[in-house]
Specification:
The structure is a single chain. The protein is an all-alpha fold. The chain has one domain. Helix 2 packs antiparallel against helix 3.
Length: 90
């Protein structure tokens, strides 16, 4: 997806797809850095369910904010986001 956006004549046509990638990376990061360690610590079912419920709500709000922000970006800004994602891939 990053390559498609970077090579596109109209970068802004791919805002939605980029927003989807950023939301997915955010959700995966929250799971990896918060929920996975909580499970490994054997924090207990109630604690894990509470954390899962809270995280789901936070992810919903963040997803909406991310889509709104990326939906307003211009071409150079979108390319900058792609560059930041590529940095994470190193």
């Amino acid at each position: 997806m990053l390559g498609t956006l970077e090579q596109a004549q109209d970068v802004t046509a791919h805002r939605g797809a980029l927003a989807d990638v950023v939301v997915e990376l955010t959700n995966s990061g929250m799971d990896f850095y918060f929920m996975k360690p909580l499970k490994l610590a054997k924090a207990g079912f109630i604690v894990q369910q509470s954390a899962n419920l809270g995280l789901a709500g936070a992810q919903q709000v963040m997803g909406s904010v991310i889509r709104n922000i990326i939906g307003r970006m211009d071409g150079p800004q979108l390319l900058s986001v792609c560059g930041s994602i590529r940095q994470l891939m190193l």
